[in-house]
Amino acid sequence: MSDAAYPTQWRRPPMMVKSRFWRIALTVGAIIYLVLALGTIEVNYARVVEGLSRAQRFVAGFLQPDFTSRSRDIWIGIAESLTMTFTSTVVGVLISIPIGLGAARNIAPRAVYLVCRSIIAVSRSLQEVIIAIFFVALFGFGAFAGFLTLSFATIGFIGKLLAEDIEDIDEAQAEAIRATGASWVQLVNYGIQPQVMPRLIGLSLYRLDINFRESAVIGIVGAGGIGGTLNTALGRYEYDTAGAILLIIIAIVMVAEYSSGYLRRFLK
């Protein structure tokens, strides 16, 4: 590759607003808006002082975690979160692969592209807690609502990134496969899959990590997992039990982070 592909000196990026007057006006307007927005925040200082005392008790409980008093509830919640995490990630990835293929502009017909992009947009437009509330209202409290929530969120996450990776593939390899008279399935299998598979595996491992952390959040609204146990402990002011739960969550996330990092390096 020639050296011309790399710039040898820094260049100022092009300005979106070329007029100096409008740049100053927009900057001043943004500062005024920020000040006015901060002024609308109502701070209850008495509640803040009361919260500081609660924070002290929580920190004390965090430093002296209680793993034994509610050990059964804790381990049931952890097992439920891990089950939800694994199953939702597998199902979500399996569903997101055809959707990601359909959402890639360079290999999918326009009608299929629009449908798949719409599915991804709907999945990404709603935060997991909102989706969990909806599924809890439909199917009741428990892990099934959490499983559906995390699967739905995984579809939008993996589907979008997979589609973008497919659109950024080396077209020369794909064109070589097309030149042999290969079918669409053969094109995907031999021209696209080798280029995006390492990235897909890495994204799936990353989503597995995200789903475990999200399982603790959606459990607060009744979608199963350790979040429900954590919410109960906080509601009863059992900060030592809550501290134990948080430490377990942190430990599992750290193990998953290091494991996924090792696997990604191995796959590269």
UniProtKB/TrEMBL annotation:
The keyword Transmembrane helix applies. GO terms for cellular component: plasma membrane. GO terms for molecular function: ABC-type phosphonate transporter activity. It is a multi-pass membrane protein. The keyword Transmembrane helix applies. PROSITE patterns: ABC_TM1. Belongs to the binding-protein-dependent transport system permease family. NCBIfam families: PhnE. This is Phosphate-import permease protein PhnE. It comes from Roseinatronobacter ekhonensis.
